[in-house]
Every structure is written in structure tokens, then in C-alpha cells.
Amino acid sequence: MQDGKSSISKFIYTFIVVFIIWNAFTWPGKFTDIQLAEVLTGIFVSIVLALLTNKFFSSFGLKGILPIKILYFVQYLFVFLIALIKANYDVARRVILPSLPINPGIIEFKTNLKNDFAKMVLANSITLTPGTLTLDVIDDTFYVHWIDVTTEDAEQAFKEIAEPFEKILLKIYK
Amino acid sequence: MEILKYIGYGLLIIGGIFLFLGALGIYRMPDLYNRLQAGTKASTIGAMSVILGVGFIQPDWLIKTLIIVVFIAVANPLSSHAIGRAAYKAGLKPIMKTKMDAYEKTQNIQETKEVKL
Lengths: 174, 117
Prior knowledge:
The complex is a heterodimer.
Chain A: H1 4-25, H2 36-57, H3 67-96, E1 105-110, H4 116-127, E2 132-138, E3 141-146, H5 154-161, H6 163-172
Helix pairs in contact in A: 1-2, 3-6
Chain B: H1 2-28, H2 32-57, H3 62-89, H4 104-116
Helix pairs in contact in B: 1-2, 2-3
């Protein structure tokens, strides 16, 4: 899979992302205040970082910034933010109620995602959504600590916990 | 830019409340895994909201605070996963009402491997 073409594409992709982050950190507040020296240093640092890390940083290269993928990513962000707010309401309710309504257990389910980065995103999202915490990911099986186990069946648990995220992630990381 | 300032103060207050609830959760929950649940979620949104609030009060820093917020959203669940997994490997059994522990069987395989080594 590691041919020269995709390696260059990965390098450019990493360079763009690192350079954007550099500029965001050194943003002076106004467009006219940007210092040339800072931008040049940023280009240099970005090239060095992109050379060193492009193998690990990106698995798709420039395909990762196709507009359709960015749109799906924005959609994912909205789904995730809503889930995050729900999760915090849920935790707040459980913590404040004097009866402490918890029914914990560890369940497993399988995911259809193949890409490692996508699995990491899914695992992180599961941790931040209501009542669940990813303990481990072995190959394509997720082990999730669930604060309120409503079903012990893997399929059913997958539907309740991961499906809305996985649908979008499958579109991004085919 | 007065409105931005008030949004910022609102976010600071919300963040403070959630950080407090996270601390309360860590105090009240019965075992480590449930404590991690409360600690991770509440402290993630608490820290995110406080940092974003600072960004709104001081608009020059908004972009920087946004990057820090993204970093927290990525790093916090990762660290809680590491703590939970390490605790399980160290032999800390979770409190279960349903007796549902799917993770246990993988654990035994790995343990026997480690003993042989």
C-alpha cells in the first residue's frame, strides 16, 4: 500500500493540517498583524513535522480533505455535541438523585469499521456519550462499561450505543 | 461585544457547575469504573466550557481556546480508557448488578499468556 504517490499526498496533507494549527496558535487577532517571521518559522516546522510523522498522521492522504468528507465530519460533530450534552445531563441526574440509579455491567459488540483511526474516533465518542465508557478495543470488538445495562445482547447494545456514530463514520472512512 | 462577554460568563458558570458535579460523582459512585464515568464526562464538558468561556471573554484568544477544546475532547476519553483498562488488568473487579461482564473472558486468555512468558 505504501507507494511513492500516496506518500507525497500524505506529506502534503500533514503539512496543511500542521500549518493550519501553527497559524491558529500564533494568530495575533488581526489579519494585518501577522508577522512574516512567524509564518516562515511555521512553514519550516510544518515541513519537518510532516516529513517525520506523515506515515502515522494520515491514512488517506489528500483524500481526507474532500469537501464531502468535511461535510460528513460537520454532521458528525453535531451528532456528537448533542450526545455530549445528553450524556452530561444523564450523569448529572444520576449523581444528584439520592437513590443513585445505576445498574452497571460490561458489554461487548462488534463494529463494521476497518480503519484504526475511525475505531479510535468511535471509541472516544462512545466514552463521551450517555452512560458508556470504552474499556478496550480488540480487533473489531468493543468492550464497553455501561452504567445502566438495558440489554445483554451484543446486537441490541450496538444499536443503542454505537449505531448513530458508526453510520456517519462508515461514510467518511470507507 | 458585550454579548460575547455575557456568553463567556455563562459558559464559565456552566463549566463550574459541571466540574462540581463531576467531583460529586467521583465521591458518590461505588467503584472505579462508575467513578470514571462521572469523572470523564463531567470534567470534559466542564473544562471545555470554562476554556471556551475564557475565549469568549477575551476574543483574541478564541482560536487558541478552540484548539485546546478539541485537544481536551480527544485526550480526555483516551486517558480514561487507559485508566479503566489498567485497573481491570490489575485485577480490580467492577461492581455488577446484572452479572454481565463480557470483558472477563478475553482477560483470562491474556493472563495465561503472560504467566508463560
